[in-house]
Amino acid sequence: MAFESAGAGELFLLGRLLFGGVLAFMGLNHFQNAGQMAPYAEAKGLPAPVASVYGSGGLLLVSGVLVILGAYPVIAAGALATFLVASAVMMHNFWAVPDDQMQDEMTQFLKNIALAGGALSLLAVAGTSWPYTVGLSLF
């Protein structure tokens, strides 16, 4: 199957560690810097900006850890892909900001879209047997 070649399982594990680790760190950052992030969320028009920051932080943290562990891959990858695309469009709408903010917002938009692509790639192989996991899955 997908991980039969020499070293493929180890590379897949390394990719999960890097991908999930970055997302989990981003989630922790939401908790540690909620005071600075909530006004930004409010300025972008999110309802309940403080709760939105903590909720998105929780999603990133939990889903990132699940990716690292290889647990519930359909849930983790699906939630990440959905959140990352939605947050790219809602929070980093570079096409609707002043020129002096456009480059920063475009960079954040593209980062979220690239990460969503990674999550979709994991979702595509979520039905296969992932090497080096804790063995928890719904499917």
TrEMBL record:
UniProt key word ATP-binding: no
Subcellular location(s) per record: Membrane
Keywords (A to Z) from UniProt: Membrane, Transmembrane, Transmembrane helix
Superkingdom of the organism of origin: Archaea
Pfam families linked to this entry: DoxX
Topology versus the membrane: Multi-pass membrane protein
Main location: membrane
Entry protein name: DoxX family protein
GO cellular component, one term: membrane
Residue stretches spanning the membrane: 12-31, 51-69, 75-97, 109-132
